[in-house]
Amino acid sequence: MRKIIALLILATLFISCGKTKNDNQIQGKIEKEQIGVVSKIPGKILKIYVKEGDLVKKGDTLAILDIPEVDAKKTQAQGALTSANAQYDMAVNGATDNQIKQLEAKKRGLKEQYEFAQKSIKRLSNMLKDSLVSQQTYDETFAKYQGALAQYNAVQAELDDAKNGARKEQQTMALGQQDRALGALQEVKAADKERYVLAPQDMSIETITLNLGELALPGYTLFNGYITNSTYFRFTIPENKLSRIKKGQDISVHVVYNNKDIKGTVTTIKQLGAYGNIATAYPDYEMQESLFEIKISPINIQETKELISKTTVTLTL
């Protein structure tokens, strides 16, 4: 037993001695730009067209929402627009043929009354001069004459309005009502389009947060995924190694899990303000030193097409 323990200790010492720490090599992670697809208006999930792991193109339909309130508002808006159109047409075009015929008939009747009253007042005026009628009788007839004249003038003005259309102010008011109804209908149509949840970019679907029949609230993320061709490599280095790398530098990154080297370019060097953002496991640095995040973008994005996000990569400085 003692021999076995001694051999194990020797083997451990041998392995430990055989390991040499490479201070020039740091670890990082494969990252992809994440994207979330949210709903703009509330509605129940009616149908889902994708599943987790699918690759979709920009504009592809991911899901359809059931929004009965929009259908009801659409019917109301269409009715309001129809009414507003009719009011505007009537204001511009004037009365119908039947209305004009009625007004012309009314005008003829009032014209006969006016002409009769006019003749009557002329006769009474001559008779009054000869004292054949009293002043009271003349005044009563004159009042009837004035009333007949006023009615005739009123129907003449009404007929002119019917033939020529409404005043400009009335037409403008009717046009405003028409535009308002049209705007309400366009608003409803825009909301109706939101029942179709579309992919904003080429992306891969990683998670689907709701199931059929569940309620999607405004701003709630329905789908999470990664933007296609957005792979990059992220490393964390202390300031004592900052001089070994610079922005725009071409450098080789080693993917651990498939033992593949990929060439990339340093695109971002920025200081980290929080320990939780560190990408490198157990970074070797002094407590007083600042940490910096290095972002390396692959030169040939097609080489990263099959890479798995969050896996480990190494970089030798």
What report would you give on this structure?
The longest helix has 33 residues, at 97-129. It is built from 5 helices and 14 strands. It has 3 domains: 21-32 and 230-316, Efflux pump adaptor protein, beta barrel domain (Elongation Factor Tu (Ef-tu), domain 3), CATH 2.40.30; 34-67 and 193-227, RNA polymerase II/Efflux pump adaptor protein, barrel-sandwich hybrid domain (OB fold (Dihydrolipoamide Acetyltransferase, E2P)), CATH 2.40.50.100; 72-190. β11 (250-255) and β12 (260-271) form a beta hairpin. The radius of gyration is 44 Å and the shape is rod-shaped. The model is unreliable at 5-21 (pLDDT under 50). The chain is of the alpha+beta class and 317 residues long.
How would the global form be characterised?
rod-shaped
Separate helix tally: 5
Helix-strand pattern, N to C? HEEEEEHHHHEEEEEEEEE
Low-pLDDT sequence parts: 5-21
* DSSP strand content: 25-35%
Q: Reading side by side through the largest sheet, how are the strands ordered?
A: 1-10-13-12-11-14
Largest sheet: 6 strands, antiparallel, barrel
Number of strands: 14
Number of domains: 3
- Average pLDDT, rounded to a whole number, is 80
Radius of gyration: 44 Å
Instruction: Give the N-terminus to C-terminus distance in angstroms.
Output: 46 Å
Given helix and strand content, the structural type is alpha+beta
Q: Level of helix content?
A: 40-55%
**What assembly state would you assign to the polypeptide chains in this entry?**
single chain
